[in-house]
Specification:
Structural class: alpha+beta
Shape: globular
Bound molecules: calcium ion
Number of domains: 2
Helix content: 10-25%
Order of helices and strands: HEEEEEEEEEEEHEEHH
Distance between the termini: 105 Å
């Protein structure tokens, strides 16, 4: 082999190596897009609204917690709600606070003329180190209340509970997103820090794909770069009458309407000309 050919081959190999390294670097170094709610405010990500709680909750509905996630001295924590045991990640064991949540128990709320299901995140951090990054939120509907063996990171190939679940929402769909939160904005005991409004249309699509999937599973992960400290993080659902079941007041109105129509029909029979003239 001539000296010149050897130089060309070596240069080519070096160029290929550099290209491979550069591509690997791009994949590894793609940063999360950090949405800063540490000073309050709100952000919309993949049609879901994340809104800082800057006052005590108002309106109707019951706020019912369904998962507590925490681990002492662990910067990154993750978990999801289920009745299944043993728990997979950093969830708290109590069946009262880490449990299944039925879709039919959640209240449908309307915000800016769009229907949502509403969730509340309550974080607990040290006052002197109050920031916490929410890195992942993934929601699925599952076909049983006690599913386990969750496959996280859907944007990286995670499958939820596989065929036992249908996909609803991913914070990282399309872009790897994260949200910075500040415990000190609402540091009162048990006070919530952020509302998450997830479009009802997402749930409807999941139900259409798998009508038997009735249980809401919410997986979340915290801690990069602003790490977990102090107490647990807790998600709740806003429960209450939803559009699938008429509210008592609606039922009463419906009954009144039926009674009224029946009365009109009787009146029309006895005074046909009177009704026709109207
Ligand atoms: Ca809090
Ligand atoms: Ca993310
Ligand atoms: Ca914490």
């Amino acid at each position: 082999m001539s000296g010149r050919r050897t130089v060309v081959i070596v240069c080519l190999a070096f160029a290929l190596l550099c290209a491979a390294r550069a591509q690997a670097a791009v994949i590894i170094m793609t940063p999360e897009v950090l949405h800063d709610l540490s000073h309050g405010g709100q952000v919309t990500i993949n049609n879901a609204d994340f809104v800082t709680v800057d006052q005590q909750p108002t309106g109707s509905g019951v706020i019912h917690s369904f998962v507590r996630i925490g681990a002492a001295n662990q910067g990154v924590v993750e978990g999801y709600n289920t009745d299944g045991r043993p728990l997979q990640f950093d969830e708290k064991e109590s069946a009262t606070f880490t449990r299944s949540e039925k879709l039919s128990d959640l209240k449908i709320v309307t915000r800016n003329n769009i229907q949502y299901y509403q969730f509340l995140l309550d974080i607990n951090q040290e006052s002197k180190s109050p920031l916490l990054t929410l890195n992942e939120v993934e929601i699925y509907l599952g076909n049983a209340p006690d599913l386990l063996s969750y496959s996280p990171n859907r944007s990286g190939g995670g499958t939820g509970f596989g065929p036992n679940s249908s996909f609803v929402y991913d914070l990282d769909q399309g872009t790897d997103n994260a949200i910075d939160l500040n415990y000190n904005l609402n540091s009162g005991s048990g006070s919530g820090d952020m509302w998450a409004y997830i479009p009802k249309a997402n749930f409807d699509a999941a139900k259409a794909a798998a009508p038997g999937d009735d249980f809401v599973y919410l997986y979340s992960k915290f801690g990069i770069p602003n790490a977990n400290n102090d107490g647990y993080e807790e998600w709740s659902g806003v429960e209450g009458p939803n559009n699938n079941v008429p509210e008592p007041s609606s039922l009463a109105a419906l009954l009144a309407c039926v009674t009224c129509l029946a009365a009109l029909r009787i009146r029309r029979k006895s005074h046909p000309h009177l009704i026709l003239a109207q």
